[in-house]
Amino acid sequence: MDDINVIEVSTTIDSLSELGRHVWIRAGSRLQNVQMGDDCFVGFKCVLTFAAIGKSSMLATGVQCLGTAESPIHIAENVWLGAKVTVSAGVSIGAGAVVAAGALVTSDVPADAIVVGRPARIIAQRNVVEDGTPSPEQVLAKVRDRALRGLPSLLDRASMSVAGLKALNTDAQTWDISDEALIDAELRGGASVEIARDCILIGRSQRQGGISQLGGIEIGTGAILAEGVVIEAAGGVSIGDFTELGANVTIVASTHDHSFRSLPWEEAPVRIGSRCVIGEGTLLVGPLNIGDGAVIKPYSVVIRDVLENTVVNGVVQLMEIQE
C-alpha cells in the first residue's frame, strides 16, 4: 500500500508491469507484463498477461486478459469488462466499450460498443451522458483509512483473523470458517455455516460503513460455501438454509449504469433460497432471485430470476475457461 495505489493481499505483479496513479487491484489477482493507466480498477482473482490497459478502465472480478508476447491485448480508456470476461490474445477493445459478464472476446471491439456472449457479439452502441470518467480515487482514501484504524481490511491478512471476525459478527460464532478465507464483510444468519479456504467475502451495510442499506451477507443454517467462492455483497446477498455453493462460484450484488460515462455504481441484491445447489464455477449477477430448491448447472452465467425447484444452465456457459 502507498498513498497513490492500493494493492491487496495475495496479488502478484511482475517487474515488467507498470501502473498509473490511483489504481486499485483487489486480492488474488496476477499481473504479468501489464501497462495500466491512471484511475483503473481490477477486481478479485483477475489474470492479466501482456496487456496495455487505458486510463479509467474497470475490470470486474475474474476477468482474464490472456495476451502473449507475440499477440498482446490492447484495451483503450474507460472500458468496462464485467465479471468473468475472457479476452483472447491479440484483441483490441475500443474506448468506452462495455463487455457483459461472462463474455468471451475473440475479435476486436469498436469504441462504445456493448458486447455479450461467447463469442462476444455487438448488441448496441452506448448513448452516454458525458459526466466524467470513473475513478476509484475517492474510495481508495476510505480503504487506506480503514486499514490504518486497524479494522478488518484486505490490505492486511492479520486483520481478518477468524477469531476477530467472529467477535465482530456474533451470528457467525458457530460457523466453520477456514483460516485461509479472506473476509471483510458484515455477516448475519443461522448456525453451522461452512466457509472453505480461498473464499473471498466482502460487503457491509450502511450501519457498518457500507454504501447501501442492503449491504452485507446473510447465510442460513447449514449452508456450505466450497473452496474459492467469491461474494461481493455491497448491494446485499442472502443465502438460504442448507444451500450449497460449489467451488469458485462468484456472486456480484452490484452493477453499473453504462448510460453515464462515469459508470455510477448501483446496488443489485442477490437472494438465493433454501436447499439450492449452485454448481461449480457459476456466476450470479444481481439483481437476482433464485427460488427454493433450484439447481444451477456448473459454469452457468445467471442474470435472470430462477423459479423454485427448477434446473437451469444460465444465459451462457463458461466451460471453456474451467481449470
Automatic annotation (TrEMBL):
SUPFAM superfamilies: Trimeric LpxA-like enzymes. Keywords: Acyltransferase, Lipid A biosynthesis, Lipid biosynthesis, Lipid metabolism, Repeat, Transferase. Pfam families: Hexapep, Hexapep_2. The keyword Repeat applies. Belongs to the transferase hexapeptide repeat family. PANTHER family: ACETYLTRANSFERASE. This is DapH/DapD/GlmU-related protein. The lineage of its organism: Bacteria, Pseudomonadati, Pseudomonadota, Gammaproteobacteria, Pseudomonadales.
